[in-house]
Amino acid sequence: MIENNVKNILKEIPERNAFGEKITLVAAVKLQSAEDINRAIKAGITDIGDNHVQEFRDKYEFIQGEPRRHFIGHLQTNKVKYLMGKVHLYHSADRLAVAEELSKRGEAAGISSDILIQINIGGELSKGGFEYGEAERAYELINKMPALRVKGLMAMLPLTDDVALLSELARKMRALYDAFKKYDGNFEYLSMGMSGDWKLCVEAGSNMLRLGTSIFGARNYN
User: Fold this and answer.
1) CA–CA dist 128, 60 (Å, integer)
2) Which of 52, 117, 126, 198 is the most buried (most CB within 10 A)?
3) Pair (66, 110) in one structural domain
4) How many structural domains comprise the chain?
5) Is the Cα torsion angle 130, 136, 137, 141 positive or negative in sign?
6) How far is CA 87 from CA 1, 57, 113, in A?
7) What are the pLDDT digits (tens) for 111-164?
8) Residues 6, 57: one domain?
9) Whole-angstrom Cα distance, residue 187 to residue 176?
């Protein structure tokens, strides 16, 4: 099943978005076994994203094929030390404390980290991230921190069937990304789109998708 899912999703996702940017697929591997992750990698997945530090650590040495490693979940500052030097891109710099910890530990270890600033585009109390109106100030503060490179933005759209609202929010995120990209050449990624909404996110201009269910099927939380 995993192999077929990977084959089908890679065929379905366009190579580039409407802005001519290459689209990167990050397989969200939360609760997946190392064996199933390796099956996905062998089938063509090049990037994998973890949500939990403990899972990342437990499975790290068992992952084959040298995929690019992403951290896409909420990150506790006391666990940053376990990820240093092992993560290609941190998607969820959702508060200053996380960026500060990555900066501090990176500077001490001589490691520069690529990060995305997480924006709470739906203004949801249940989600982390900077409010839309805080984005510019957050960028100004984080961009000055040593041993960090701000490579773009990340967002999670609300869970709703209101397609018009989702499209509006996705376009709003793209406009924010473009505004930063005009004066920061390091901006490269707009990480937006999961298994239920990736198509409209690509239409709005996302260039990085985080898909789990589309690849591995429904998660088993038992």
Assistant:
1) 26
2) 117
3) no
4) 2
5) positive
6) 28, 11, 8
7) 999 999 999 999 999 899 999 999 999 999 999 999 999 999 999 999 999 999
8) yes
9) 11
